[in-house]
Design goal:
Elements lengths: L4 H22 L10 H4 L11 E4 L12 H4 L3 H22 L5 E4 L8 E10 L3 E10 L4 E10 L15 H16 L3 H19 L1 H4 L3 E3 L5 E3 L8 H58 L9 H30 L4 E5 L2 E5 L3 H20 L6
Parallel strand pairs: 1-2, 1-3
Antiparallel strand pairs: 3-4, 4-5, 6-7, 8-9
Length: 372
């Protein structure tokens, strides 16, 4: 009988995952609720929508490996969360209808019209803490705030699409929108122009450096704009769109990997939350009883053990999925100026290679030396 336990466990694991997916399909209409419309109103038709870059989060893993177990950190899972969470935030921001293109970036793009970065301070099924910063193309700080969310048993099982900490992402989106509403149409238009010229300066510093200046507040301001119809800036804009095309391709992969990871990840978070709740209840029982008091009941101990056992099972499954999220990346085929390029390796490596290709193409077309 005992030699059949691994097989039974495997079947139970598959059954639980199948039930989770089936339940999520029933509630597929529960798309991310829109946020911000009641707080700040819709953008008017005359206002420009800023594009948003969401940099992959800092996983917040301590360098001291001896602390990982005590803090409940599984490095592979945390690294996968650092990619998974921006995808959730991207969905919330896009669903508001208040922004232009919202892209998850494998590397920081300094010429982003609005760049959002995050650090995972704490993450388990019971509590999520994120430190979020947002800066616009001028370098002005829009947001620097810690966001904390907690769950209760009613948040599980998780409906897909959705997240047990959806209120955290909605609050981030609401705060970003509030900051956006403080900008005049002219300021937003200038931010878009600064972002393009920053990208141009990265390609050809000797040509575009004089268009921008740094203020005493250490922010970037416009000095002048290129002439209308300037062929050089037209090339810059075309290459930037080619870079965005690659990032959009990366976004599709992140979204697909997130969908594959979500069922097991959310089950793991559910068991993790239950385990944390049992630990808290056990501590309360210990602190409330006398030195000769009755110890925890067998049923309570058995429940705690079962939660621990299932949590471990799903850690193993999730660890495998997280490894895939971090490493299994499809080759990307891109075309520019009539030439097809095939990029391989990690997304970071592909992105670096693609940016280098675009810089070399720009140098060939303009006769300028590639930017170092």
């Amino acid at each position: 009988m005992y030699d059949r336990i691994p097989l039974i466990t495997s079947h139970l694991r598959r059954f639980a995952r199948a039930m989770y997916i089936l339940a999520s399909l029933v509630f597929v209409s529960s798309v991310y609720p829109a946020v911000g419309a009641t707080d700040a109103g819709e953008l008017s038709g005359t206002e420009e929508a800023l594009d948003v870059g969401l940099l992959i989060f800092d996983p917040g893993i301590p360098t001291d490996e001896s602390t990982h177990s005590k803090l409940g950190i599984f490095p592979r899972i945390r690294n996968a969360e650092a990619k998974y969470m921006p995808v959730i935030l991207r969905g919330v921001l896009m669903n508001t209808g208040h922004w232009g293109a919202v892209r998850v970036l494998p590397e920081a793009l300094e010429s982003s019209e609005l760049l959002v970065t995050g650090t995972i301070l704490h993450s388990d099924g019971q509590r999520l803490a994120l430190q979020i910063k947002a800066r616009d193309a001028s370098g002005a700080l829009w947001l620097d705030k810690a966001y904390v969310g907690t769950t209760d048993p009613s948040d599980y099982p998780v409906r897909v699409p959705g997240d047990p900490f959806l209120d955290v992402y909605q609050q981030i989106a609401s705060d970003l929108l509030s900051a956006r509403r403080q900008k005049s149409p002219k300021e937003v238009s200038q931010l878009r122009e600064i972002a393009l010229l920053l990208y141009a300066r990265g390609l050809a510093p000797e040509v575009f450096a004089s268009y921008l200046t740094r203020t005493p507040q250490d922010e970037i301001a416009l000095v002048r704009l290129p002439a209308e119809g300037d062929p050089m800036i037209a090339r810059v804009d075309r290459l930037r769109n080619q870079e965005y095309l690659f990032i959009d391709t990366v976004d599709e992969q992140y979204a697909r990997l997130s969908e594959e990871m979500a069922p097991t990840y959310n089950l793991w978070r559910q068991y993790s939350a239950e385990q944390a709740l049992y630990r808290e209840e056990y501590k309360e029982r210990v602190s409330s009883r006398g030195s000769q008091g009755r110890r925890g009941s067998f049923a309570a101990l058995d429940q705690t053990y079962n939660a621990y056992k299932w949590s471990k099972i799903h850690v193993q499954d999730l660890d495998e999925l997280a490894l895939g999220f971090n490493n299994e990346v499809d080759p990307t085929v891109m075309e520019v100026s009539g030439t097809v390029f095939r990029l391989s390796g990690s997304l970071d490596a592909q992105y670096t290679e693609w940016r280098d290709i675009l810089q070399r193409i720009f140098a060939l077309e303009t006769g300028l030396a590639p930017a170092s």
